[in-house]
Design goal:
Number of helices: 2
Distance between the termini: 45 Å
Shape: rod-shaped
Order of helices and strands: HEEH
Radius of gyration: 24 Å
Structural class: alpha+beta
Number of strands: 2
């Protein structure tokens, strides 16, 4: 789960960075392109909704990483070895 969360975080961050870097020009209609390929033409509401979706995916990845890290911390406690004769001898 930890690796999946890190993968979601990295993919979302990379995709968002590439979209922002490749689409700095503005207008009422935005042609979204990543690595020179046009993906879609969106209006302002569609761009806002896709940003919300990317934020939700990013938060899901962050939650998966935090959950896996907390699970590792709560691993089984170590048991103390007792003497063969029992405690107190």
């Amino acid at each position: 789960m930890f690796i999946l969360g890190l993968l979601l975080l990295a993919a979302t961050g990379t995709f968002t960075g590439l979209v922002i870097a490749g689409n700095l020009s503005g207008g009422p209609e935005y042609t979204v392109s990543v690595l020179g390929q046009d993906i879609a033409t969106m209006n302002t509401l569609a761009v806002f909704c896709s940003g919300l979706a990317l934020a939700l995916i990013f938060c899901a990845g962050l939650s998966a990483v935090a959950s896996a890290a907390a699970h590792r911390r709560r691993a089984r406690p170590r048991t103390r070895a007792t003497r063969p004769g029992g405690p107190g001898r």
